[in-house]
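Example record for the data management plan.
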Amino acid sequence: MSFFPLLWTFLPAFIANAVPVLLPHIPYLKHWHQPIAEKHLGKNKTWRGLVMGTLAAVLVAWLQYELGELGILSGLRILRLGFAESFITGFLLGFGALFGDAVKSFFKRRMGIAPGRAWPVIDGIDYMVGAIIFVSPFYVPSFMEIIILLVIGPLASLAANLFSYVVGWKNVWW
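Corresponding structural encoding:
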């Protein structure tokens, strides 16, 4: 497996993980900011983030499918899925990534780590583990692919957090 097709395949998970950070800056979505289970997950895990992150992943998967059908970037497709399977896979990657992040938040609360505070390395592995588990009915990455994803996940999270901090979307850089 080549590096870029692997990242292309898991792009919906990366997008789903990033979208909730962007949402507070979209005025029409402010009223959806209800926490899912504040006591157990903290105030930052909201219905808006879950729904919109998952929808963004589905949209990305659909765009990947369409680009593949047009012959654009089709060489990057690991999964040769039909139209309906692309939507399902996008949902599984997106929801899985956000579910993994929520599970991590649950354990952070149990350990007394405040919402928004860093849990280094785990903060980037959580969503990748969730995405890998949820997409496994369609694709099971090799051991080496899992290692690559678990290295890229934290690096992508770090880059996104640094960017969000620099532009003023987050109060902490990690």
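Summary line stored alongside the record: The chain has one domain: 3-166.
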